[in-house]
């Protein structure tokens, strides 16, 4: 007997995680629907390889225009698609930018989650549709304990972090009030070759590769001493799916349990590129030299009004209950990112 394919709907499908989650679900034989925003330039580069022409029979990958700030579009898409699983990955996801556009960030990152939850309830899909909310370690902000787990209190330090705390609690609220199958993933930083160019790992890899081949002279960074628990996006999207396959909905921290400073990340990439280097100076004058020339310098512009100095996750609950495992360490992640960047440069 043929089993019916499961249907998933992804908000934020054009982003780093949306693209990997799409691949993961298609491999599991899902029909994947995704919401894209209208943009004056193409914003689908991460999912172009998955695209299926609307004239293709029995499509498995279907895109819809929509926006998470538009309640009616959210609601009508959910009504039309009636998915078994909804993944809310849509966000203004840049912490520094959230200080520049705080109200917009709240609208997308906080109320966006509410719009989806309310649409599930309004269309009486509580028993059919499971919901995943893309929560973040930024909610721990000025951490009150280390490492952070599901019970660690939140202390967000940016409009982004504050908005995500709202989304986290409203997800729990709908779970408790309406018996909705709704889960929060509390994901620590996760990276890949598809990471947006203004996040620090991608910015470092991209600039140092270009410096290596003589296409760039200098990389400017902000705080070198913040510590992050960096994992691989591919490993982390699997955890999102696993949460929705459990009998009962719950919240899970997803992290590697290892942390490094931004400066260590720079050092790892330089070593991977076989570039000799030496750091000299202090504070804003700290510089990294290669062959006698400074290649990394500090620019105050990249400091934030408030910093999250340290993040380190304890994901033992996810390991125990979801049987989730980390497959990629930081050096493998850097390898993957550097290889891709160098291949791009060769193609250029
Ligand atoms: P990303 O690459 O910035 O992708 C964000 C996605 O949201 C993009 O598809 C973007 O569309 C979409 N989006 C933004 N505003 C929207 C709106 N108003 N309506 C509909 N879609 C909108 O982020 P990511 O790294 O994949 O992260 C995925 C989610 O996980 C985000 O919610 C992020 O906050 C959260 N998270 C990420 C990390 C991490 O380290 N990556 C860690 C914890 C939590 P466009 O392509 O059109 O801009
Ligand atoms: N972006 C950026 N650019 N960050 C820099 C720079 C720079 O030039 N120089 C230093 N940093 C520091 C930031 O101050 C921060 O402490 C750290 O590098 C990481 O910055 P990002 O890569 O921008 O990531 P993030 O930790 O602020 O936020 C990411 O991870 C969160 C999970 O903890 C984003 O993906 C968020 O969406 C996600 O929720």
What does this protein structure show overall?
- This protein is globular.
- The protein has ten helices and 15 strands.
- Helix 2 (71-81) packs parallel to helix 4, helix 4 runs parallel beside helix 5 (159-178) and helix 6 packs across helix 10.
- The protein is α/β, with parallel strands linked by helices and 348 residues long.
- The longest helix has 21 residues, at 102-122.
- It has a domain at 7-193 and 232-256 and 312-327: NAD(P)-binding Rossmann-like Domain (Rossmann fold).
- Strands 3-2-1-4-5-6-11 form a seven-stranded parallel sheet, with helices on both faces. It has a four-stranded mixed sheet with strand order 8-15-14-13, covered by helices on one side.
- The structure holds NADP nicotinamide-adenine-dinucleotide phosphate and guanosine-5'-diphosphate-alpha-D-mannose (GDD).
- Guanosine-5'-diphosphate-alpha-D-mannose (GDD) binds at residues 93, 95-96, 136-138, 188-189, 198-200, 203, 221-223, 226, 228, 262, 302, 304, 307, 311.
Would you kindly provide a brief summary of this structure?
By secondary structure, the protein is an alpha/beta fold. It contains ten helices and 15 strands.
Strand and helix layout:
Blueprint: E1 7-11, H1 16-27, E2 31-36, E3 61-65, H2 71-81, E4 85-88, H3 95-100, H4 102-122, E5 130-136, H5 159-178, E6 182-187, E7 190-191, H6 200-212, E8 219-221, E9 227-228, E10 231-232, H7 233-245, E11 251-254, E12 260-261, H8 262-272, E13 278-280, E14 287-290, E15 293-298, H9 316-322, H10 330-347
Helix pairs in contact: 1-7, 2-4, 4-5, 6-8, 6-10
This protein binds NADP nicotinamide-adenine-dinucleotide phosphate and guanosine-5'-diphosphate-alpha-D-mannose (GDD).
């Amino acid at each position: 007997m043929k089993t019916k394919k499961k249907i998933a709907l992804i908000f934020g499908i054009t982003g780093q995680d949306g693209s990997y989650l799409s691949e993961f679900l298609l491999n599991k034989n899902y029909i994947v629907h995704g919401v894209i925003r209208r943009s004056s330039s193409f914003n689908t580069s991460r999912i172009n390889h998955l695209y299926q022409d609307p004239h293709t029979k029995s499509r498995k990958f279907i895109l819809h225009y929509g926006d998470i700030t538009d309640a009616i579009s959210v609601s009508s898409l959910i009504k039309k698609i009636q998915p078994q699983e909804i993944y809310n990955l849509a966000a203004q996801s840049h912490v520094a930018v959230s200080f520049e556009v705080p109200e917009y960030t709240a609208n997308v990152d906080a109320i966006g989650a509410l719009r989806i939850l309310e649409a599930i309830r309004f269309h009486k899909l509580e028993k059919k549709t499971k919901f995943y909310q893309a929560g973040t370690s930024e909610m721990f902000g000025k951490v009150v304990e280390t490492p952070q787990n599901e019970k660690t209190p939140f202390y967000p330090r940016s409009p982004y972090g504050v908005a995500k705390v709202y989304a986290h609690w409203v997800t729990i609220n709908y779970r408790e009030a309406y018996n909705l199958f709704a889960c929060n993933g509390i994901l620590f930083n996760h990276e890949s070759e598809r990471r947006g160019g203004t996040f620090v790992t991608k910015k470092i890899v991209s600039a140092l590769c270009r410096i290596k081949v003589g296409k760039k002279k200098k990389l400017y960074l902000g705080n070198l001493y913040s510590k992050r628990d960096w994992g691989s996006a591919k490993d982390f999207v699997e955890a999102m799916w696993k949460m929705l396959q459990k009998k009962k909905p719950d919240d899970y921290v997803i992290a590697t349990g290892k942390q490094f400073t931004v400066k260590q990340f720079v050092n790892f990439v330089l070593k991977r590129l076989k570039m000799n280097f030496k750091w000299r100076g202090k504070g804003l004058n700290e510089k990294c030299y290669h062959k006698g020339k400074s290649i990394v310098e500090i620019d105050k512009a990249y400091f934030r009004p408030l910093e999250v100095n340290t993040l380190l996750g304890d994901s033992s609950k996810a390991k125990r209950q979801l049987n989730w495992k980390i497959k990629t360490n930081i050096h493998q992640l850097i390898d993957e990112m550097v290889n891709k960047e160098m291949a791009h440069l060769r193609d250029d």
